[in-house]
Specification:
The complex is a heterodimer.
Chain A lengths: L1 E4 L14 H14 L5 E7 L4 E6 L54 H4 L7 E4 L4 E4 L15 E2 L4 E7 L2 E6 L4 E6 L6 E2 L4 E7 L2
Antiparallel strand pairs in A: 1-3, 2-3, 4-11, 5-7, 5-10, 6-9, 7-8, 9-11
Chain B lengths: L3 E4 L3 H13 L3 E7 L6 H5 L2 E6 L10 H11 L3 E3 L9 H9 L3 E2 L4 H8 L1 H10 L15 H11 L3 E9 L2 E6 L5 H16 L4 E5 L5 E9 L5 E13 L2 E7 L6 H17 L4 E9 L5 E7 L6 H8 L3 H9 L16 E8 L1 E2 L5 E2 L2 E2 L2 E3 L6 E5 L6 E2 L6 E9 L2 H14 L1 E3 L7 H9 L1 H4 L7 H4 L3
Parallel strand pairs in B: 1-2, 1-4, 2-3, 4-5
Antiparallel strand pairs in B: 6-7, 6-8, 9-10, 9-12, 10-11, 11-14, 12-13, 14-21, 15-16, 17-20, 18-22, 19-21
Helix pairs in contact in B: 4-5, 12-13
Classes of the chains: A mainly beta, B alpha+beta.
């Protein structure tokens, strides 16, 4: 994915009233058709007359590989969520979260697994909650250090007030470090993992 | 007593609660948004948890993140301060479900007094004097016109879920009613997500008198005298004092009994404020109840020596109040000036920015509740308060003199920064204020 600007479109004659937007649109469509990959995003600005185009298949320029921008805003009126509690045996009676089992508390880092962390981008927690590396206790973790993940793939779950929030990869990347331990309650913006973009 | 309390707030009130916790041997947890990361209340707390970005909806109002922070730190209670989640009964219920004590009244009591028209009905039933008006939400403009004609103009239209001086319109003549009714409903919906409004008689020249109450679970209920908050602009308080220069000891006992009767009638627990209007004939009229600690609580603390935050924590823990009615003595006089980053010359518009110079006053009987330090940012995300200056004196005249001395010592400057300090100096030096002749129309009547 790449963002390009087309300075050629920023010429004064395109600024003529009545023609600029029409002209801009037709030029943008022509450019889009000539792109080497699938169109991902197209932005037209009539004021400054610029066109931003993103397409797939080009080398990634180190994008932000964070989780979802904000997965579950708290609903107005506070209805109780319909999701089943996760995972039930970690929840004490009354819904309080029991301390995580000691065996789940290992923190995996790049150094421990000797995967070099170059050009890596942190995945940070979008909310405060309990960090889980697998879908249920004892199940295989979603990812391990060294794994290559696809865009949209679940990296971990953060559970807050019985709502499960999937933390997903935005782009194809390799997991180079995992900073949070299973069962940790993480803060907003706390680094959870480092991902290295894969071309 | 609690071992650990989380403060779901920011700024000076977060610091105030942290200090009360420390005085009581309780460890404190601050929660903070990204722009508040370096703020004084974060460093003052024993622990802190980052709960979200600047916009309050994603941090100080984000319930799952606050509950998560309490569970992460093992806090047993959450003190909500004022504003934000302090009067949200749903938040109090969620705290209870998570096994965390909400420092405040029970959720059903909060809900009852939070609906201002329902509160009017409950207080009428409890025998309190109320201005003529409605105890139900007014549904149509025709109904509003009929009610207004019945009680006589001027009338005031208020949002049932309102507070902080917002969602209020004064109507002086029938031809203005339709527009005022519609705009109040619209702003009530926009601000409070509830378009219900009610109508009552408007007193143009009245004093705003509020009574501090604290109640426990053992039938303990104490009133701590009144605060006079008559100096307001657009229904927002700017200067508060205790005692009121126009309340005699007999009137104090009378309005105190009204306040306690009202608090008992709704099953109140914790610290709360009963707001009244005092008319020119010396009669009190119940206006509304605030189910939280208030910004201006320090003036009551200064004249009664009762730590209101400590009482809140004692009662929330399930203990009795440490004070009895017969022990309450109002001694001397206290005044609070709200020091806001606002420009009084331009309609009090906020002037957020960096405090390049910040020097707070000191000396005997001078208290400054502030979270600001030199170099701190007054964030555009939140309210414009820099701090509160509270002084005590043996009588009102010496208290005013001491406040003027302290205001002169207070230095605040920064790029584009204006404050309410010059405004306070003008009000306190005004002969009408010195003479105690202050009603809610003070700013309209006097050129400052």
């Amino acid at each position: 994915m790449t963002t390009l600007e087309f300075p050629g479109l920023d010429e004064p004659e395109l600024d003529a009233p009545g023609t600029s937007m029409e002209e801009l649109r037709s030029q943008a469509l022509r450019l889009a058709a000539e792109l080497p990959g699938t169109l991902r995003r197209l932005t037209l600005r009539s004021g400054a007359l610029t066109v931003d185009v993103e397409w797939e298949g080009a080398p990634p320029p180190a994008p932000v590989l964070a989780g979802p921008a904000y997965p579950v805003p708290y609903p107005a009126g506070y209805p109780q969520p319909g999701f089943p509690p996760y995972p039930t045996d970690l929840l004490a009676p009354g819904g309080a979260i029991a301390p995580p089992a000691a065996s789940n508390s290992e923190v995996t880092t790049a150094t421990a697994n000797s995967v070099p962390a170059t050009n890596s981008v942190p995945v940070t927690a979008p909310l405060v909650g309990t960090f889980y590396r697998s879908a249920s206790p004892g199940a295989e973790p979603f990812v391990k250090v060294g794994d290559v993940v696809e865009a949209g793939q679940t990296l971990a779950i953060i559970e807050a007030m019985k709502l499960l929030n999937n933390i997903t990869a935005e782009h194809t990347a390799r997991v180079v470090a995992i900073h949070a331990a299973n069962g940790d309650i993480v803060e907003f913006a706390q680094p959870l993992m480092d991902l290295e973009p894969v071309e | 007593m609690f071992d650990k309390v989380l403060i779901a707030n920011r700024g000076e009130i977060a610091l105030r609660v942290i200090r009360a916790c420390r005085d009581l041997g309780i460890s404190s947890v601050a929660v903070y948004s990204t722009p508040d990361a370096d703020s004084e209340f974060v460093t003052a707390a024993d622990e802190s948890v980052h709960i979200g970005p600047g916009p309050a909806a994603r941090s100080y109002l984000h319930v799952p993140n606050i509950i998560g922070a309490a569970l992460k730190t093992g806090a047993q209670a959450i003190h909500p301060g004022y504003g934000f989640l302090s009067e949200d009964p749903y938040f109090a219920e969620i705290c209870a479900e998570a096994g965390v004590t909400f420092v405040g009244p029970p959720p059903d009591v909060m809900e009852a007094v939070g609906d201002k028209s329902m509160a009017r009905r409950l207080m009428t039933d409890a025998g309190l004097p109320l201005l003529p008006g409605t105890t139900e939400a007014v549904e149509t403009v025709e109904q509003a016109a009929a009610i207004a004609a019945g009680i006589g103009y001027p009338v005031i239209i208020k949002a049932a879920a309102g507070g902080g001086g917002r969602g209020i319109s004064v109507v002086h003549q029938p031809e203005d009613l339709r527009a005022a009714y519609q705009s109040t409903r619209a702003s009530a919906q926009a601000i409070f997500k509830n378009s219900a409004v009610y109508i009552e008689k408007y007193l143009a020249k009245a004093r705003h008198i509020e009574v501090q109450v604290v109640c426990d679970d053992f039938d303990g209920a104490v009133h701590l005298g009144e605060r006079d908050c008559s100096v307001q602009r657009r229904h927002q308080k700017l200067i508060e004092e205790s005692p009121s220069p126009s309340v005699t000891p007999e009137m104090r006992a009378q309005v105190g009994q009204h306040a306690l009767a009202g608090a008992r009638a709704v099953g109140y627990r914790g610290a709360g404020t009963m707001e009244f209007l005092l008319d020119g004939d010396g009669r009190f009229w119940f206006m509304e109840m605030n189910a939280r600690i208030q910004v201006e609580h320090p003036v009551t603390e200064m004249v009664t020596s009762v730590d209101l935050i400590a009482e809140q924590l004692r009662v929330a823990y399930g203990g009795p109040l440490s004070v009895k009615q017969e022990d309450v003595e109002v001694r001397g006089h206290a005044i609070e000036c709200r020091i806001n980053a606002e420009d009084p010359a331009r309609g009090f518009i906020p002037t957020p920015g960096r405090l390049d110079r910040y020097r707070i006053p000191g000396g005997p009987w001078v208290r400054v509740d502030t979270h600001c330090v030199p170099g701190a940012m007054v964030s555009p995300y939140y309210d414009s308060m820099i701090g509160k200056l509270i002084v005590w004196g043996p009588d009102r005249a010496s208290c005013i003199d001491r406040m003027l001395r302290a205001l002169a010592e207070f230095e605040v400057s920064g790029p584009g920064m204006k404050t309410t300090i010059p405004f306070h100096q003008k009000v306190l030096a005004h002969p009408a204020f010195r003479g105690g002749d202050v009603a809610t129309d003070f700013l309209e009547r006097h050129q400052l």
